[in-house]
Design a protein that fits this description.
7-stranded antiparallel sheet; RmlC_Cupin_sf; 5 helices; RmlC-like_jellyroll; Cupin type-1 domain-containing protein; 3-stranded antiparallel sheet; YjiB-like; binds fe (ii) ion; about 220 residues; alpha+beta
Length: about 220
């Protein structure tokens, strides 16, 4: 696999969302073979080798609530697309049609169309909502359990055998970190505590040789 192109996005705080002084990293065409098809097991094994444990595979519906993780960074790889992700903005209404397709969300974020092979490395605090405007239902949910671990005797086998359809991503978190779900306004006046969540030693894709080691904080330890 050639070294994928890296794109950085700086998304600072809004009124309700901490977001992050660390950039969002996007690698294009990660884990794509010569045939243009993705290799989910190669992604799974690379994340695991680099100390990021896969905890879910999800198929997205028409809407998701904007959220962030206050105690962990996260990585997500698009296994099947296209899909859309809005970054950095809080929802301002409970109605999914209004906060996803209307104007009931904060200014200050960005929205991008994503495709198979897009790999994101997301700093703690950065808000995101993932959705598929072409989906019929509002949500399909996690395909591998409760999203806090792959619930199977052989997690690799389950991931390898999942049918890829619609907008699907696989998510992983640095080993030893626990992820929780927070929505806009949950940490008002306390953004710094989230921005200081420790950076893991290894980039989920590049390990010791770049990514978060170059673009987040200079690590003091070896990956
Ligand atoms: Fe997330």
């Amino acid at each position: 696999m050639a070294k994928p192109q890296l794109i950085k996005y700086d998304i600072g705080p809004t009124k309700l969302m901490p977001n992050s002084p660390k950039p969002l990293l996007l690698y294009k065409k990660a884990f794509l073979g010569q045939d243009g098809k993705i290799d989910p097991l190669l992604a799974f094994d690379t994340f695991t080798k680099n100390g990021w444990d896969v905890q879910w595979v999800t198929r997205y519906g028409r809407a998701q609530r904007s959220h962030y993780h206050d105690s962990s960074h996260e990585t997500m790889i698009v296994l099947s697309g296209p899909g859309r992700i809005r970054w950095g903005a809080a929802d301002l209404d409970d109605d999914p049609e209004k906060h996803t397709y209307g104007d009931a969300y904060e200014p200050g974020g960005i929205e991008i169309e994503v495709e198979t092979g897009d790999l994101f490395v997301i700093p703690a605090g950065l808000a995101h909502k993932s959705f598929d405007p072409g989906a019929k239902g509002e949500s399909y949910g996690c395909l591998t359990g409760d999203a806090h671990g792959i619930e199977a005797d052989d997690p690799r086998k389950l991931v390898a055998e999942l049918a890829l359809q619609g907008f699907m991503m696989m998510g992983a978190y640095p080993r030893g970190f626990t992820w929780t779900w927070s929505e806009g306004g949950a940490h008002l006046g306390n953004f710094e505590s989230i921005w200081s969540v420790e950076t893991p030693d290894c980039d989920p894709l590049l390990g010791n040789s770049g990514g978060i080691r170059d673009h987040w904080e200079k690590p003091t330890t070896q990956c």
